[in-house]
Design a protein that fits this description.
The chain has 954 residues and is an alpha+beta fold. The protein contains 30 helices and 37 strands. The strands form ten sheets. Strands 13, 14, 15, 16, 17, 18 and 19 form a seven-stranded mixed β-sheet that branches. The protein is globular. The two termini are 59 Å apart. The mean pLDDT is 94.
Amino acid sequence: MKYNPNEIEAKWQKYWLDNATFKAENNSTKPKYYVLDMFPYPSGAGLHVGHPLGYIASDVYSRYKRHQGFNVLHPMGYDSFGLPAEQYAIQTGQRPEDTTSVNIDGGTDKEGNKIAGYRKQLDKIGFSFDWSREVRTSNPDYYKHTQWIFIQLFNSWYNKNSDKAEDISTLVSIFSTEGNANVNAVCDENIEAFSANEWNAFAKEQQERILLQYRLTYLAETEVNWCPGLGTVLANDEIVNGVSERGGFTVVRKKMTQWSMRISAYAERLLQGLNDIDWSESIKESQRNWIGKSVGATVEFNVQNSEAKIAVFTTRPDTIFGVTFMTLAPEHELVSQITTPEQKSEVEAYIEKTSKRSERERMADVKTISGVFTGAYAEHPFTKEPIPVWIGDYVLAGYGTGAVMAVPCGDERDYAFANFFKGQNGMQEIKNIFANVDISEVAYGSKDNVIIANSDFLNGLNYKEATKKAIEELEKLNQGKGKTNYRLRDAVFSRQRYWGEPFPVYYVNGLPQMIDAKHLPIILPEVEKYLPTEEGLPPLGNALVWAWNTETNEVVNTDLVDNKTIFPLELNTMPGWAGSSWYWMRYMDAHNENEFASKEALAYWESVDLYIGGSEHATGHLLYSRFWNKFLKDKGFAPTEEPFKKLINQGMILGMSAFVYRLDGTNTYVSKNKIDGQKVQPIHVDVAMVNTSDELDIEKFKNWREDYKDAEYITEENGKYIVGREIEKMSKSKYNVVTPDDICNEYGADTLRLYEMFLGPLEQAKPWNTAGISGVFGFLKKLCRLYFDENDLIVTNDKPTKDNLKSLHKTIKKVAEDIEGFSFNTSVSQFMICVNELSTQNCHSRAILEPLAIVISPYAPHIAEELWSLLGNTGSVATVAFPIFEPVHLVESSKEYPVSFNGKMRFTMVLPLNLTKEQIKEIVMKDERTIKQLEGRTPNKVIIVPGKIINLVG
């Protein structure tokens, strides 16, 4: 018999599929365990070897939990809406749904490219997914529930008194009986007060406008990241270095009417919930920083010669007398009102310039100092002194109030700003309000040991005392109050794109109306072009059938809109994170047509026990998911407050890029060792053209590009061309991608799985090196030789030796501990040690090899199944109980002592560990080897340390 991985793996993958081996039940006497992977976006590029790392780890854990007797839910699906598919459709003229389907299921695209398909690639690696629960966020049977959740959000408000979301009808009831004066809600700022009588007298449209100010999802003019090149709004985490992550297009800030969600209502709960989940501290800290809780006060400054008031939020009201100037965000709505005619052109030019910088870029850039004086002055609440008002892009419109009271003596950024513009009109001298503190060279930002000075009624007080007193006096003036603020802003929920969930919304007189849930899904219509319309409307503006008939409750031709019974539908679509904000619940009951999941299924699975995915989603997907989960909990749908109990972020597998070197100004390529100080340009070359000795296949390289054919090549003396190597992110653009398909075809999926786990700790980044694959493949062949030879099975019923049992139980113990601790790389090392030991011991005992097949099964499931079957067992090894570790087999009853003479070891002898020193001495002295070494002499001293050494001296 021969180890043939392709044949074995195809056989067992078919078996698992035919027998639904990994199908989880929604009702079981077994304890439940839910393992979730961050589901992939199905791009045409398919998987490279870096993608499966987290999936293999979660699969090892899932299989191990099944061996332990758990009912394991380990599902998989596709986050299939999104910008990349639409961009590809625009470029190639294909429908996004067609390319997405080919990318998942495999096939040939319009350009004739053969696409392996994510499903086939995943199956080839042997994952124990419950494919009966597969979801695709772009399927109408999935996004009808995303639309339903949106409607629930629209029909809800956040009651601060109950600290949860409630149905909007309860708010309407309060308005109709007592008005809004006593309503404690998360809502828009500066809502006008009204009585019950006034509410009841309002027209229906006026009531709807007011309710929009309270709803958890609402329409509002919002400052957004607009990307003209992509024709859409982008989230902060979709922007890198001021340009779009997708395509590298310029991003500017502009105001647009958008759907937004009041995630800010959940800021405190999102913050406190981090204390109850088992996530890495780095991810928790990222979320804490994103939420950005600050305790302080709001202060209102009157603008001189104007009715305008500037509201600021400060964490240091104790420094109120140190205000030297004020800074507004360039986008602040007051800027245009208060700027003087003399400063207008300078201010407008600055606003235009800063609109091209993203918020993330502005936050990160602490070195660049820029700003413009508006010409306006505010009035100090207590001293009534004039305070110059500037604009500067270090202040963000969306954080706090978009304005700061600048206290340079106590803040580094204010200090740098004041010094940079020192001596200019509109910049006053820095005031020092700290007793016995020198601020001549640096600001004093600490709250510790502060004694306030030059501050009227605050003189002599410490930080806490002065803060309390300042707030009291501001409240007396009706110009401030204590407040807790959060950096977290409401999430923009609109995209001016085609390939996303349609909103279940139509408009009557410009006001949004929800389509009744029983008419969902509202299916994405066909359009001829995926670009915005000539009028600048989103791509759905091109749809010929995109209007809502309120009588027949169906989507009808757009030209039938009469604004009486037929109304326009929303033209924006939902963002990429809509479908991924609740998908783990759909897996619990994936085929339920009437609800996103039944109460019974939700009650059984509750939440995800283990979630594995990339850390790049720390503040995007993970924060939005927690928000939606908490909302659904408030409304009685989700059973738990938090969706993911334990989260592990797998590290990135990096590619080993290869470079050829072109001599500057020539078409000559020089081997790495022949550069010798010459000026060269490194060029990425496909790693498939390079062998494990870093030698380039020159013929393949010549045929790769037309301009390489006639190039000259300076090689080593032996005629070889040696490439340069560098570890980088694995990417098609760097030609360093290794596909799992190639590895599986040549070495088998079990080799790939073991090797990826062997590379290093799961959470660390590590470079891929194909050269190491052959060693793991050799290990699997050595494992097989314990079970069969060239002819047949060689397993016996011989009683195992003590050494056999010791090797096995060391492995059982180690592997169980490693899997529980997610130290998968050290398990692989232990497998290799065990197989080496058993080979040396010439062990072919069934009592050892049968449990060994189970222990290795989570890592190398195909060969484990084959060995289990060859041993005469029926059914899948995946369902067999994990072997129990028996400590007795690791208890040493004897010791191999090194016997030394004058410190030099001459031989060893095995002795029972329960012997006394005298007994050991007697045995040693009578040993023929000792007699021979002593040659009749009597040693001066015999040193014996039981369990360690024997040394005869003299």
